[in-house]
# Entry
Amino acid sequence: MTPAIEVRDLTMMYGERVVMKDINFSVARGEVFVLMGGSGSGKSTLLKHLIGLKEPAKGSILFEGEDFDINDEAVRKRVLRRMGVLYQNGALWSGLTLAENVALPLEEFTELDAKTIAETVSFKLALVGLRGFEEFYPSAISGGMRKRAALARAIALDPDVLFFDEPSSGLDPISASRLDDLILELKASFGTTIVVVTHDLDSIFRIADRALFLDIEQKTMTALGHPAELRDNPPSAEVHRFLTRSSEGGP
Amino acid sequence: MPATQASATSAALAQLRTEGESLVVVLEGEWSLEGELPRFDALASGGAGGRTGVRSLSFDATELGEWDSSLLIFLMQCQDYCDEHKLEFDPSGLPEQVPRLLALAHAVPERVHAEEPKRASFVTRFGTAVLRAWDDVLAAITFAGEVALAVAGLITRRVHMRWREFWVVVQTNSSGALPIVTLIALLMGVIIAFLGVVVLNRFGAGYYVSYLVGFGMLREMGALMTGIIIAGRTGAAFAAELGSMKITEEIDAYTTLGISPMEHLVLPRVLGLFLMMPLLTLYADFIGIVGGMLVSAVLLDLSIKQFMNGLLDAVTLSDAMLGLLKGTIFGFIVGIAGCMKGLQGGSDAGAVGRAATSAVVLGITLIIAANALVDWLAALLDI
# Structure
């Protein structure tokens, strides 16, 4: 089966500076795939490439077998329509209520009537535990609720692939765990492919089918596999230190 | 999305049939948010709703193709119908993931909606508006008092101001503001001179256009226009800058460290403008007079010497000093309005815009009011 996402020989640059090079991996459909690495390792930059916010300096990204050329407007629209993104701070539109935030993509991309849109919005908000909060503005709810509301917006159009940027950052352990539950539920119920950028070890071991490690020193990926296997047989000292929260060198 | 039957490719379809005491919903085709979707209320109102002896609602999904949230929305309509007609909702015929998702959607008890605010009477709204305006006035007076105390503290060396910020404000309002002040002041001088040429020439008194330009620029328009420009330019920038700092909790960080935002953020800005506004006013006066001189030379053939003689006959040092005094006051007003609105801003994304807008509106309003007040006092004191 064609992978949901395939990254070939990707080089990422900021101006003239190479951030990461020789990145090669694929994400299978229905898989929870984690991009991990230390702060500043380029995880979020890689995510920006995957969601079409940055153009690869070299190499290519394929979305379900199709080259994701962000300069081709038709391709870009087609691919983005099938993606959902949960940004680190939620990025809810502050001038809109939660219902309006979730409804906007439905109004833009579907022909649904207003009643069905309202029902869909209520359903999506209910899925993330925010039933009854439709008329609240983002400023009136907590950080954890904002993130869940942003998730409701991200899944409004039933995307094939969902991207999460640091989903547990700024959340208490219970809220973070609840978000992990939702990720697993989305995978189990809708078969959604999920790509998560995080360095939260609890979350990595709990949700990831596979994880990719970006090494800031080597400026490339140095490990790919199931997190528990990577922890037990680390391919590098950096991976060992990262997955065991250790400051000591590994094997 | 999961598929219960890979071969199904037709549009979403739902039909009703009765089996004993059960109403069976037959689900067929591909269910997608992007396609045409059946509604259960429409389906039920087509005759099914009136069936007697029906006790439950069940499903036949053997012909169901791929599905997404659209199917779940339809099933929630079915649930609502069952609740309304006291029927048992039997999800056993549905794909295995569906009951779990429906349960998840109902897992959290519905929260009570935020209460709709009742429409207040006109008297209540008017009274609230007046009280709010009064609070704003008190807040502005308090803020100005705090600034005055900080200035006093600076003089007595109890307060340590960040001089780097002060010099940044000075720089921004010197070379940074000159192009726009030059343009507006020059045009102001030209406009006053045109007015003078048109009106005074009717009485054969065109020569006195320099009186008009001198009085107009030095006493009124030089300071007024500079104040309005700086309110729109620097006052808005102060409000936006401090408003952003409030959103990112930088102001809180000052406070929790025991450092006064007033001393470190407000004082350098207000004093920077306090220093620069009279200088900018002086510059605007000069440029405006040059503009008037150019118009006089072109339209009335007045030489520079004639123009200057007329001007010096008319205006005195006190006229220029009055203009400079106004400029200083306006600088204080713009600085305080900008900083106060920035620090009073909210924490949402629109707060910065609102703070900048209200800083400009407040600044310009107070400038016009202060100008009228100073003119009235000057008239009383025969200046």
